[in-house]
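job 3f2a | input accepted
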Amino acid sequence: MSDFLLSLRDVTLAFGGPPVLDRVSLSISRGMRAALTGRNGEGKSTLFKVIAGSLEADSGEIVRAPGLKVAYVSQDANAGDGPCRSGGEIRRRRLADAIRSQPDVLLLDEPTNHLDMEAIDELEGMLRQARRMAVLVVTHDRRFLRRVADQIFDLDRGELSGWACDYATFLRRKANLVADEAVYWERKSKKLAKEEAWIRRGVKARTTRNEGRVAALMKLREEFAARRSRPGVASMRLDTAAPGGEKVLKVERLGFGYDGAGTIVRDFTVDVLRGERIGIIGRNGAGKTTLLNLLTGRLAPTAGSVTVGTNVEMAFLDQLRGELRPELTVGENVASDRDEVVVGGVRRHVYSYLADFLFPPERVRTPVEALSGGERARLMLAKLFLKPANLLVMDEPTNDLDVETLELLEEQLLAYKGTLLLVSHDREFLDNVVTSTFVLEGDGLVRQYPGGYEDYVRQRGAAAGREKSAPPAPAPQKKKPVKIEVKKRPLPFAAEKRREFSCNPFAGL
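job 3f2a | predicted structure (509 res):
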């Protein structure tokens, strides 16, 4: 059996502007485990669609092995399946269906979005063992990327480069390349300035020597005109409202459950203090968003109470981006019909403000429905950061963000003086940001652990070890069993769905 599966040769694709794919060449072979990196809007999803055959290139050649089977799980694969309880459950099912189809090429666009940690671990293990298929992944999850990929493809300003190394090595080499490029263009810029000054002095260009110098200047001008500069770095700044009281939330014997779906939270008591950064973790469907809504008053408990402290001002980021109106433009979503926004007490033009979130003027006038997932995520942050708050509530804020923006968000949250409640499945993000975690452990039990995700894993492992080493409890006196006949009744729909998703969809693959 040949290892060759697919190749792209000088593939170019543009949508009316600079090429998204500029003479891209790529070879895919059986057993490949590669990551496709690049900033939001660079065209990673576009390249995947070209490989999958759902989008036709403007030029170039695509060669596929006979009978090639490609499975593509897009980054919005958690949409359009409203019988299901959560985006994580939908994505888990879509991933399982793609894997079970046994494709030759598996394309995964942000596969860890909405997945819980256990599902991510299972997916990592499956992909590491994949030998028959080729796997290409687009992901912002740095830990997932490091554990899965042994080859990197980087899409930068339309050009694709391949790196036969792990992610950490790629980052070092890429940084060196960017630094070398900056030095190259700095030298070119100085030369251009010198030659422009020379030609402005009115030097006679009719001599053979000067004709050559003028021709070189024209070529240098063309080179600068064709240059595609690296996009800028987001410069968003999180504004903190005036501090409130020391106790932000007082939670007493909190309880909640959905009819037919069991208890989500049972007898949970905790004080959330000013300055704490708390991550909420648990399996898909465990009720992380429900707990977040209970703590913030968006959902009424069935037992117990949540008391909000004095002078608490809250800002909320919804994982479903529900606050965005898709029919309106980027600018209208942020500033309605106004030209200015107020940031930290200072008035700024909406175009200037949105430039901090990497939206150029033409993109500010674009309807939200035409934005990529990463652009929508940045727009949600732009809306959120306009509201000064001392209690920041974020439900899956890292979904679809590129790594550079994700790391900037980490820096902003670490410098934030207020209190943070955060739902995330990004293990590295949690480790870098939070000071403690609320863990939904099942059957309504919620426990608090100090530290981030890895700290929780270590504490859970130590607790399990202590339980194993403890002497067994004395066996109870045996009693004569009483036979009771119970007529089986069908499970309610919600409970049936929960049982369906409690299994591991990746098992046996």
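job 3f2a | The longest helix spans residues 167-200.
job 3f2a | closed
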